[in-house]
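TL;DR need structure tokens for one chain.
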Amino acid sequence: KTVMVDISASGVESDNDTNSSNTNLVHNSNPTISGNGRYVAFTSDAMNLIPSGTTEGRIHVYRRDLFVGVTVLVSISHTTGLEGGASSTDISEDPSISADGRFVAFESNMLNLVNGYSRPLTNEFGKDIFRRDMNQDWGDHTLLVSSLDSNPLSGTPVGGSLPSGNASISDDGSRIVFQTLSDEFGGTVDD
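>> reply
TL;DR here they are.
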């Protein structure tokens, strides 16, 4: 059975094709399905996938519950629980979902996903890796994974000096691997 996932809670198809201001032409992409087959995480620039809507041209990560038929915005602000980002250049993309669908890892350049989060000027427009716990309400729901602090919960979260991307999350959501151009994470960087 084939099922469309980029639909609103009321069953209306996404309006991504009407967002003519988005020159990235992302529309809907990078789907990933949970091991239990219940959830699909994906990237979209559609504005009508959630009841409150999103800003035109902003690319977000969503999770769709195929059993209940509800789509939830993953890339949300830590202060409001609403859409993350502050401008149309703020994007979140490339999700990876845990086996039970509870955790979603993704890359983003949005500064308001985690309380106190900042990036070095060398990575001003680059992306970092985040993990959202979908069982938590907004507030402390998202963790900066590509943090310069070995324990991102211990202090002010600071992202890497260069962009990170292509996250892949473990089945239980406790481990995330990703690619990075930063050399301060303890590994080696190949040119």
